[in-house]
Amino acid sequence: MGIRSYQKTIVLRLGVGIFMAVAVAGAVSCGRLFIEPSVPAEAPAAAASGSSSSGAAATVYNYYVYISNNGNLRILEYSQSQTTGALTYLAQNNTGTPQPKTLTAHPNGKFLYAASDAGDKIFVYSINQTTGLLTKIQDIATEDLPAYSTINPAGTCFFASNSTTGSVSAYSIGGDGLLTLAEHEAGFNTPRGLGVHRSGNFLHVVNSGTSQVWLHNIASDCTISTAADTIASGAGPYGLTGHPSKDFVYVSNNSAQSISIYTVNPSTGVLSSAGTQASVGSTLYPYVDPSGMYLYTGRYASGALSGGVFGYTINQSTGLLTALGTNAATRLNDYCFTSVADPLSKYLYLYCDDGGGNYYVKYYSIASGTGELTDSGTSYNPSGAGWGLAAIRIAQ
Question: What's the pLDDT at 29?
Fold first, then answer.
């Protein structure tokens, strides 16, 4: 699924890190937890014709969404309407990629990375800056089961957690988007979600086997230190995501059905508990939208609890969460996983399974100023299991 670095990426965290997710000055990634970078404001509507009040030409952007379809070994490519949020099918990348679950977009919007937890590889794609279409340019080995990935805000380091091997693979990223192995750092106990702090100096990793979050320092060559600090999470931690402009980190605790909230010491990367959001249900991949104002998480239908997507406002001083009023209206009797917003935080996309093996992506409009969600009534069927979502914008 996914995740995101604490700058934003779009992995339609569809993800961190877990951080599902998932970091781009103009891109967003989601898939198993990842983190996303902040994006400059869009030119005002009055300037859309190509000029502004200052006489400068307005920047025009095209928007794209990518959906992983690990059941049919492909990545689906869509253009996105900023007027309605609707997706228009463009193409599918049938490269035989085994289970391309997590999708992570590079901060420059020029490359997309797919973690394959069946092929034990990272697949790298260039993104055509005119059409948004993908071209595979590399595949590189990881260790066993790389289900979560993230990129640092500078776009120079890529990290993937390998849950079966108990390691994190670290790579440097060249100007051409290609990966070069820096190291496989061992010693983890079922690592899952991970994310890079917005400073780019620290990597936080969910260590599911010990119900902890581990801190690692990042060197200039993208290698990471052994654990410099640890802190307890709730039971069964999975996803991790960070705030794009504040020192907050969020970890979903699937067994405890809660979200652990942490503050980050910006000088050392050390986490301190700020509180716990209880009664969130079974959730894997929390996601902070590019504005940094809201946290959304997909939820499993389990017992008396409904599935769907649940949202929270983020207190910008403390990082604490307050449930949105529309949570009751966004309940589904399905299993929902990753979510991701477009770079302007206008629409939220959600990956779900109806319980019968039928996977779909649906989307909601996000109310400006409140974060409340309105169901568009539209869904897209990728015709096979998947987790990864990524959303980007490209200047024209």
Answer: 43
Identity of the residue numbered 149:
S
Q: Distance between CA 19 and CA 37 in Å, rounded?
A: 12
pLDDT, tens digit, 9 for 90 and up, residues 326-378:
877 777 778 888 889 999 999 999 888 877 777 888 899 999 999 999 988 88
How far is CA 169 from each of CA 19, 108, 341, rounded to the nearest angstrom? 15, 22, 27
DSSP reduced 3-state for 327: helix
Q: Residue range 181-207: average pLDDT?
A: 96
Residue 226: which of 214, 236, 216, 239 has the closest Cα? 216
The whole-angstrom separation of Cα 41 and Cα 19 is 23
Q: Side-chain half-sphere of 68: how many Cα atoms within 13 Å? A: 42
The reported pLDDT for the residue numbered 69 is: 78
Provide DSSP, 134-167: EEEEEEEE-SS-EEEEEE-TTS-EEEEEETTTTE
CA distances from 332 to 2, 160, 298, 366 (A): 20, 31, 10, 18
Q: Tell me what the mean pLDDT of segment 160-184 comes to.
A: 96
Report which residue type is found at 201.
N
User: Could you tell me the CA-to-CA distances from 42 to 35, 48, 65, 74, 261 in Å, in that order?
Assistant: 21, 10, 18, 31, 30
The rounded distance, in Å, linking the Cα atoms of 222 and 171 is: 6
**What does the angle CA 259 – CA 264 – CA 265 come to, to the nearest 5 degrees?**
160
b/e 229-256 (16+ beta carbons within 10 angstroms → b):
bebebbebbbbbbbbbbbbbbbbbbbeb
Residue type, 317: S
- On whether the pTM is more than 0.90, the answer is no
Provide the pLDDT for residue 158: 98
Architecture in CATH of 27-39+60-395: 7 Propeller (2.130)
3-state percent breakdown (helix, strand, coil) of the chain, nearest 5:
5, 50, 45
CA 202 to chain centre: 18
Cα distance between residue 299 and residue 247, in whole Å: 25
User: What's the rounded mean pLDDT across residues 156-175?
Assistant: 95
Q: State the pLDDT at residue 27.
A: 41
CA distances from 79 to 25, 102, 130, 301, 310 (A): 18, 19, 11, 30, 26
Read off the pLDDT band of 37 (50, 70, 90): very low
**Domains of the chain, residue spans:** 27-39+60-395
